[in-house]
Predict the 3D structure of the following.
Amino acid sequence: MAKYLIVGNSAAAVGAVGSIRQVDKDGKIVVVSNETHSLYSRPLITYLLAGQVDKNKMSYGDPMFYRKNDVEEILGKEVVAVHPAEKKVILNNGAALPYQKLLLATGGRPIVPQVEGKDLPGVFTFTTLDDAKKVDEFIKKNEVKSAVVVGGGLIGLKTAEALIARGIKVTIVELADRILSATFDRKASEIVETALRERGCELITKNTVWKVTGRGVVKKVVLQGGVEVDCQLVIFAIGVMPNTELAKSAGIEVRKGIPVDDRMQTNIPDIYAAGDVAEAYDMLMSTKRQIAIWPNAYAQGSIAGSNMAGDAKNYDGSFAMNAVEICGVPTISIGLTDPQEAGYEVLEQYGKESMVYKKIVLKDDVIVGAIFINKIDRAGVFRALIKSKTNVGIFKADLLRDDFGFVWLPETFRKHMVVGEGTEV
Amino acid sequence: MRRMEVDRGGCSLFGMIDESGDRFSGAQAINAIAKMQDRENGLGGGFAGYGIYPEFKDCHAFHLLYDNEKAKEYTEICLDENYSIERAEPIPTRKVPAIKNPPLLWRYFLTVKETKANGADIGDFVVNTVMKINGEVDGAFVISSGKNMGIFKGVGFAGEVGKFFRLDEYEGHAWTAHGRFPTNTVGWWGGAHPFGLLDWSVVHNGEISSYGTNKRYLESFGYRCTLFTDTEVIAYLFDLLARKHGFGFDTVGRILAAPFWDEIERLPEKEREICKALRMAYGGALVNGPFAVVVGHSNGIVGINDRIKLRPLVAARKGSMLYMSSEESGIREVCQSPGKVWMPEAGEPVVGRLEGTHG
Amino acid sequence: MKKIRIREKYCMGCRLCEIYCAVQHSKSKDLVKAYRGEYPKPVPRILVEEKDYLSFAIQCRHCEDAPCIGACITGAMSRDPKSGAVLCDENKCVGCWMCIMMCPFGVIGRGKEKKVISKCDLCVGEKEPACVKNCPNEALVLEEE
Amino acid sequence: MVKSTPPFGFAIKRDDEKCIRCQACARMCSNDVHAYDAEKDIIVSDSTKCVGCHFCEAICPTSALTVERTQSQYRENFNWTAEVINDIKSQAGSGGVILTGMGCDKPYTNYWDRIVLNASQVTNPSIDPLREPMELKTFIGRKPDRIEMGSPEGPKLETEIPHQLELEAPIMFSAMSYGSISYNACFALARAASDFGTFWNTGEGGLHRDFYRYGPRTIVQVASGRFGVTREYLNTGAAIEIKIGQGAKPGIGGHLPGEKVTEPISETRMIPAGTDALSPAPHHDIYSIEDLRQLIYALKEATRYRKPVGVKIAAVHNVAPISSGIVRAGADFIVIDGMRGGTGAAPKVTRDNVGIPIEIATAVVDSRLREEGIRNQASLVVAGGFRKSSDVIKAIALGADAVYVATSALVAMGCTICQKCYTGKCNWGIATQDPYLTKRLNPEIATRRLKNLLRAWSLEIKEMMGGMGINAIESLRGNREQLRGVGLSEMELKMLGIKSVGEAW
């Protein structure tokens, strides 16, 4: 019998395994994945497609991670039911797996718009290793010259970047009036857009796909309004929806995702949820919601794992943020980057030549958001300031300095930050 | 007369006392010291005998060396002025071939004129006389100035010096003896051992590296070190510490051969406080460097070693007899089966005390 | 584990720690060669912050609960079981910069040709980290925690 | 006319092959000698600003820098030396007194270098300090001439021993005020003295609150400015030293410029921050020896006779009789500071021309006190330019109880004796209050180095003592027989009370 059963095999699972093993060296851990691949790094698929990472190097960290941690992986199997009362799950082959603690880390799946031609060969989503392999094969087989990426979010842009790296002419179609509109402000979007265009990428905003056409294979994409874009490949990257069906069928409370408490437990005892499927506390929004990024998934998995193993730990919440490099432009965005309401103060710095952009959003002298483009090196300090809700009033004027760092922070904050880490301040 | 004398190097020393006060012949001391002749080189030897002048026991017996009659004349004027001279006579000697060119040797039995002492300490008064003669009268040198005791010394091997002075004909209750091996001096009679002042006599083997310190320390108490010898310094230190400051020999030992600070730290509190105070106040009297001394005085004899025992000293006891010697051979020569033979610890005084006396 | 303790009251702002750190991680490991001969110039993994007369060097704290490890999408960032140091496998790092975003000390930077991250590795293998060894004022000391 | 300013004293050589443009020199130099020229990617050095402290040399990671004396020279002239010419030019420009720091640097005879020590050969054994105990313990304070005990062998100590300072070696740290040197420098001195078992001295700067815990190892000074003197201060120290004079500037007071009177210094000295701290040349309540006696006893009263009270004077011509007077006035120890003693700031003309060397002063004072039979009444501490253990051992053999070192201590902490203490820009973080500079002196390192120095000198003293066959420092004290003069006139030998080389005992 599995003491710990984890459904899903990505960041949250890894985080959970790590923290379970910190407390419980022997308790049996079983990971069930509907994919056939052993643990791998899902974000690496765009790098794989771009040819920047070898297919043999897709494993997450140490390939022996599970073996070293004595984890049993059940691959290619779907969990079809959870029976909380009997504390067991049923696999799609009918097998029942009893558990003591269950972690639902089922993640999400890409949304495919219900448009004509969505099932044509050459139309893909791009979130799994299998997706990457299929796209790769398709490109090779059909000598793809041009592609349309639908969606100007992070997945879309990283996929577009990978395709560009393969020498494919890419057109990005984005419904909003700019790319990365969810995390960036207009200026930041523009900088990235410029970089994409410099690499020959075409951007079509305020539009979306009406239909995909082609005889037996994709030939072109027709946008709303009739604009046609010739292509041999279409990737849909317009968003991801959480895989909550299993939870729902088991009687677990489900909203958009699965709400969890600060120990990552669902409303049913001994069943935990973490990662993209979970709705955990957002410090900035003061509400529970999904924040589908790797660091959160890992952190939540880790908290869930600790609690599952009996080491009570609280999740102190997170907030939206992301780090990504697109076409040579490193970017980091944290928190509320572009609030539209009144009551926010914005500090900005922009170098036309350097294309360095720094933006800090404050509310009542507390930083609530920040954007860094092209110069990102000490962005983490700002994330820490946001998280700690430090009042930056007295050193607000220094925040935009090139050499801004710890030394500008009040001594008490430095002390607080470095307690236990060997810094005498 | 050469006054700058250094007695460095190996020597032999010897001392014996009958604590019961019975007197015995100086021949024993002669034999004992002669036994250790290979520790000396013939450049000086000498003896101190205690209890040898019972008929003049209340007089200061001055033994003088004169280079010439003139020195004698001046000295006698000086003595006459301050003392009543009970008797003045040449010191009896016999011809010994090895002893050459002796100076004029005279002895005087003196009583201080009370008018001169004028209530001052008699000891200090006598010391002043000795200092004055030795310091100011050219060609005269007082080698002995105590009561009922005498120092006999000269250039030659100790045994021969003893014979020369006919010491086999004297009887005393205590004797000390010394054979010299000076390393850088021509022989001078006054420079031989024992060195004496009042009742004190010192025979010494060693070289004290603290000489400069000790000398200047003594000078600040009014002593004048005219001989530039370690022995003189030790004699004055005994005089200062035992006579003037009234310390017992154990305490004198703790000053001259002070225990190390870490030893002091380990002592019980009261004793520690005393030792610490002694070292603080008498640091200038710490005698540093290799030495073994035998000090004679009216109440007995004391032998003592330096604080890390760099020179030999053996002691033995039989009945009321106490012996101390550079080598055991000296003791065995005069006492074939001693009851107890031991090597005193560094700085541990060996005290022979005349019965019925303190000190 | 042994960690580098920063004592800002003794940091005089000479920045030699940066110099020695960069050289320690250069090809030649020789001061003059590294600075005068190597291109791109070696980059330090330690940073001296200065403000008026206050200064201190700061480098990876090798946090007990290191957020960079969990943030790493490739698993390149991990804790070395032997030394306890948080180390990045440059062969695995793809330069996503998640760790830079997560590091509260801001001590992870973009390294070699800006492709992978660069951070303090406590000079594993050396007796003492180069910054500690060469700090002229012992403002950086290696101490068992 | 062409502005006639003195030419600079140093030339900075930079080996461009080695310079890696790290700019450590440019960042560090408090005199702004080095600057990075980004346009040309070179570091340029303005030698005219260089004071020759060699800090840049020490910090340069590739040893690309050398500070040399300038090659620019006037026509050779034994009378009109470069120093003379430059001083005149400087004064013609400023119209003022030339200030300088540290001790006299003029080539008066250094008698330590003309005195040699003895060693044992054959007739007495030398002692191996690695095998045998070798004692340096020293007590500073009034000693009784004799000890009284109940009975001749009685166990009871009847003589009261006045309070003493107990030193593990006859070396103490001389007075340097908090103000003239930095907090960290004071801290290091205090801690090193405490750890080692000797004493440090507050100088006239008072005692910072943080250092009260080192009180048992502190000599607190009472100087003419009376800075920071309170009953608590007096009672916190282990001993009190009345400062009458200083070897570097006999007859001159002190002056700490207002910019150095920072908040903590103002608190410690009990004067308003930013105001000049002026120590008058004389104590205005001491115009005679009787007045001094009153102050000595006032201080003893204030400390209930529990602290030795000493008096420090500069070595001047009349030093011996003055010392005798001081001892008779009740001082428990007397400090003589010779003309090579250091200072944070003094008129150059005074520093280089007033006073006498400490060697002679030590000898004549010790002799005088012995002649008068009052040597036991007070300890003799001598100061002023002790450079090495052999200087110390020679001073002890001349008659000193202990020596004070300050310049050597500063050198141990980094000082290169550039003599610019008075500028307050000490690159080594010692003679400065600039927080940017003071943090360069890590007191832990400085403490360690000071202790090392004391240890090293102690070991050397033990080696030399062992060579002489002496295993306790008291047997060396005043033991002038162990000294011989080389190349000294008969009069000098007489003053020193030592024999010439070649003379046996």
Observations:
- The mean pLDDT of chain D is 94.
